[in-house]
Design brief:
Elements lengths: L16 H21 L5 E6 L14 E6 L11 H4 L3 E2 L14 E2 L1 H5 L2 E8 L13 E8 L9 E16 L8 E8 L1 H12 L2 E6 L3
Antiparallel strand pairs: 1-2, 3-4, 5-8, 6-7, 6-9, 7-8
Amino acid sequence: MAISIRARGWSLPTLDRRRLIGIALAAFAGILVLFLTQPAPRIGVLVAAEDLRPGVPLTSDSVTVRWVSSAEGFVDLDSFDAIENWTLRAPLVAGEPLIPSLLQSPEVSAMPNVIALSLDESHAVLGRIAPGDRVDLYRTSTSGGFDTAPVTELLASRIYVVEARTGETGLDADRVDLLLAVDEDLAAVIAGAARHGEIDLVRVAP
């Protein structure tokens, strides 16, 4: 005897627009909560591992790391290689953070005097000078009069740049202002050169 089976049709429930919007909003709210509640990234900054005196070179034993949410105004962990053997201008108590204004390079420690020099950018590597660079100083003079060929001479080599600033607007836009580390003899040379002849700087390759 033949048996016939007829399948009854099955239908899935349909999702109306309001239910779809509700699901989407719930998913978005979950993602937003997850984003807002996740911890902020932590950045390592250098702090004194012990009481530190000014003038003593920094070593890996002098500093330790503190993790903070922002390194602005502090010395970050990745900068230690650049400041190793630098010294402090003022004492630090253990746990206090290192800040850039307290640090001075070995070059500044060796030549603690600073002299200011302002030049047109065409005579100062178009302003492409940054703190930590070294520059040679040349002076060009025409002491023999207008009918005498100018004479250019090297006055000082590898002068350490403590600070460099380029004018941004106005009359000083094409000026480069420098602070240079000097001893008494070098200060006299630079001061004299600035008053007698034209100065040019050459940035020395590392």
